[in-house]
Structures are given as structure tokens and as C-alpha cells.
Design a protein that fits this description.
This protein has about 220 residues and is α/β, with parallel strands linked by helices. It has helices spanning about 25-45, 70-80, 90-105, 135-145, 160-175, 195-200, and strands spanning about 10-15, 55-60, 85, 110, 125, 150-155, 180-185, 210. It has 2 domains: about 5-125, Rossmann fold; about 135-210, Rossmann fold, CATH 3.40.50.2300. The strands form 2 sheets. Strands 2-1-3-4-5 form a 5-stranded parallel sheet, sandwiched between helices. A 3-stranded parallel sheet has the order 7-6-8, with helices on both faces. The protein is elongated and about 75 Å long. The chain starts with 9 loop residues before the first strand and ends in a 6-residue tail after the last strand.
């Protein structure tokens, strides 16, 4: 075999910015990277790429339960290990500050599934599962079709909640719907009964519906 016929694998990083529960079986963890392996194996077979791809997996606890620092540190470790591109982070509150570190320090591209436009940049790309900008437009369209003219919002205290709320307010203004109450709720699982009651009280004596500013996007 000639020297030119062998090559080191291309390294791709997979950064999971939240820890899966300990009871998750290993096969469920493997399912995270297996689709990439199937695609790259097929690419090698069809000679779309000329060397195999090795996936390096990192799992850390970012926000909301952990820290952004843990995510940025893990990104740096993957860069130091030679990854040419990194899949992740995925949670908006981790992705946006990591983008700044990528642009200033790492300059290694990343692909995410975050729904925020604030992630997009020269080095950061997205295949979002939803959109923090666009989803509230559909909520408001449904509210308007339901005849609602005044609404309230439960707002997750996070970048996701803030982004949703800003888009929700703009969409409401455009549809002639008035937001009469906004109450913050914790990003982690806590009792939100008091906030719900405050929003509920704001309806009197008006006809009222409530829309949450926290949604399915990460």
C-alpha cells in the first residue's frame, strides 16, 4: 500500500450541551451519533469523501441546569482534539454565548438545531427544529382567528423566553392584539402557580386568553 493511499480520519465533534439521565441505555446515546456514521460511511463507499470520519462525543451540563462555561470548555476540547466541524451546542442559552467564543477564539465552524437567529454567523450554521422569531407569528394568527383581542404571557426567564416574547409582542401589535399581562417563570421545573394566578387575575373584567412565551424550541 502506497503512502498516499492512507490518511488520518476527518474528525467531527458532537457536543451535547445537556446530560442525559443516567438510566438512559447506551444504545440510546449511540443513536445520537449513529445517523452521522451511516451518512459518512455511505459517503466513503460512494467516494463522495476520500477518508473515513471519526466522531468525537462530548456530553456536558450547560444551561439551564449547568453553565455556559462547561459548554465553551467542551467546545475548546473538541477543537484541541482536531475536530474540523462541531455539531452543537443546541440550547439557545448556550449557543449564543458560544458563538462569540467561536468567532473570537476557536474559529472552527459549528452546526446547531437552535431556533434563534442570533446564532447565525460566519462560523455558525443552523438546521433549526423551529424558530423563536417565526413561531409566535403563528400563535398570534390562531389567537386572532379565535377572536381574542387581549392576551397574557408566561415568560420563561431565559434567552429563549426573551426571544419568544419580543417576537410575540411584535406579532400582537401587527394583529391588533393587546398584551395585558406578562409574568416571568423559572427556566427549570418549579411551581408556577403564583404566576399563573397573576395572569389569570389580569383578565378581569376583560375577555381573556393566555399564551405562553416559552415553547418547544431549544
Amino acid at each position: 500500500m502506497s503512502y498516499e493511499s492512507t490518511a488520518e480520519p476527518i474528525k467531527l465533534g458532537y457536543l451535547m450541551d445537556f446530560r442525559l439521565p443516567a438510566f438512559y441505555p447506551q444504545e440510546m446515546r449511540d443513536d445520537l451519533t449513529r445517523p452521522f456514521e451511516l451518512v459518512f460511511d455511505e459517503g466513503l463507499k460512494q467516494k463522495v469523501i476520500d477518508r473515513r470520519v471519526e466522531i468525537l462525543f462530548r456530553e456536558v451540563e450547560g444551561l439551564p441546569k449547568g453553565t455556559v462555561k462547561a459548554v465553551i470548555d467542551a467546545y475548546g476540547e473538541l477543537v484541541d482534539d482536531g475536530c474540523l466541524v462541531i455539531f452543537g451546542p443546541s440550547i439557545t442559552d448556550n449557543a449564543v454565548p458560544t458563538r462569540e467564543a467561536i468567532e473570537q477564539r476557536f474559529r472552527v465552524p459549528a452546526v446547531s438545531v437552535t431556533g434563534t437567529d442570533d446564532w447565525l454567523g460566519e462560523w455558525t450554521f443552523s438546521f433549526p427544529m423551529g424558530s423563536l422569531t417565526e413561531e409566535p407569528i403563528f400563535w398570534v394568527d390562531l389567537l386572532a382567528k379565535g377572536g381574542h383581542t387581549e392576551v397574557g404571557a408566561l415568560v420563561e426567564q431565559s434567552l429563549v423566553g426573551k426571544s419568544y416574547l419580543e417576537s410575540f409582542r411584535r406579532a400582537c401589535r401587527g394583529a391588533g392584539i393587546r398584551v395585558v399581562a406578562e409574568e416571568p417563570i423559572a427556566q427549570t421545573a418549579q411551581d408556577v402557580g403564583a404566576a399563573v394566578r397573576k395572569v389569570h387575575e389580569a383578565k378581569r373584567p376583560r375577555s381573556f386568553t393566555a399564551a405562553s412565551a416559552s415553547g418547544s424550541c431549544t
